Amino acid sequence: MPDLPTFDSLANLMARQRAVREFTSDPVDDSLVERILEAATRAPSAKNVQILRFVVVKDTAAKKRIGELIEETPGPGSTPWAQVPVLIFVCAEDPFGDSPTGKLAWGGSIYPGIQNLLLAAQAAGLGTVLTTSRGKLKEQQLKEFLGVPDNVNIDAVIPMGYPAVKLGKNRRRPVSEIAYREKFGQAW
Hints:
- This protein has a four-stranded antiparallel beta sheet.
- The longest helix has 24 residues.
- The radius of gyration is 18 Å and the shape is globular.
- The protein is α+β, with helices and mostly antiparallel strands.
- It is built from seven helices and four strands; from the N terminus they run ααβαβαβααβα.
- α2 runs antiparallel to α4.
- The protein has one domain: 3-Layer(aba) Sandwich (NADH Oxidase), CATH 3.40.109.
- The mean pLDDT is 90.
- It is 38% helix and 13% strand.
């Protein structure tokens, strides 16, 4: 059996996953981006349809135009998108339809891959932040600019680069507050 990461090493990686909005100007090598995208493709998807597609944008002028298209207003502690080393647009077709189970299958086919991407970037020393509304607010204009076909959605935009500030572990509620035994509300 191949060497697997220990539970503790994986749990530590997850505990340090943070939304990073402030990046250094250090470039991110294409080979590292490719390895991170490869990790994203290893996620499960409903019926193994593998619907994820990625548009990676590193060109400064293109990132500036994207910032203009979405009417970006970066706040304090946030790097403007034109200066973020990498923007990854997560795209997908929706072969499942609009039924309640179809919507669940679609989400179950996208978000595990995004989580893999976020964790792989974290393991590589990179910071990321998952944004979902940015791509949707001006989706048609972004699709035209990025050459995304009409039948493909932009489901998330992930700014990625080396963190400008060191962040510690994330703060989460203890399991005893959010998990129950046998029935909702029954203490863990």
